[in-house]
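Supplementary Text 2. Reproducibility record for the structural model of the 324-residue chain.

All settings were left at their defaults, and a single model was retained for analysis rather than an ensemble. We include the record here because the model underlies the residue-level annotations in Supplementary Table 4.
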Amino acid sequence: MPRHPRLFVPGAIYHVYCRVARGEFVFNDDFEALEFIEVVREVRDLDGWTVFAWCLMGNHYHLVLRTREVDLWRSMARLQGRVARSYNRRHRYLGRLWQSRYRARVIDSDDYFRQVVAYVHLNPVAAGVIDDPAGFPYSGHREIVGVCRPHVVDRRAVLRGFGAGDLGESADDYATWVHSVAEARWSKGEVSTLPWWTQANHVDEIAEAERHPNATTFDGRQLAENRSELDLCEFAPRFELASGYSVEDLSSRLRSSEQIRGRIVFSTLAASRYRIRGSDIATLLGKHHNSVTKWLTEGLRKEATDPDFKKMLDTLDSAISFRS
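Retained model, structure tokens:
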């Protein structure tokens, strides 16, 4: 069965979270931690994020950010893909770095905003790593309270959410919120138990259609569109009929430019429009998962930069999704 569609609100504030596969403490290594932070900065600058909070623990990360024109899923594919490829190359590792696709929730109230910023920066305290978040180097707390210069966080933007006074007064209001959240029992719970997460109807949802009427689906379509939900067994034959590429040809060992293009188109449509897992695509085509990731990355890049390629994807998508 295909995975549940995730809904996006353009320009919204999100709490984003993901864990490392098998719970390994990859980011206890200072070099890996610094590499991750630099990739966050690169994606922030490239895609126009405003970062309000961040925390990198040994085996997971949290981000609180606002998007602009670029869909969140595209930015996160860039972030997690770059980190994983760099890590795997350095360590000559072929497995996946991330446990699963990231999770995210829309933050749609002032109280939730203040709570999530405090919660994220209290992560090392809740984990027993440190007593004072100002002593933890891999979070935005130090940037907000002025212990160090802002590196990732937009300090002025986040403090506007905590007070109407000058930055010093707002920083004091922020510190008060952090203290109050530290005393709350829920702040030490799992992500799924947090107040702004418990409203979700499904673990993978980012927004509820009822609360956010302007939300779109993973591929930017309006929620009201009557879109087919297809698994890979249904998608593959429809793709063959619509595109002229056969799965047999795409699975062959040949590497002609046309076959590579077909693999890129197949992987991009299957993964980005129908939420089919890369590992399932790899199994069907008899290819390595890293190859599928490479094709998908190239397809997303072309979709974003080549209008003709995007138009071709949209035409195929319509034929596949709405075929009777």
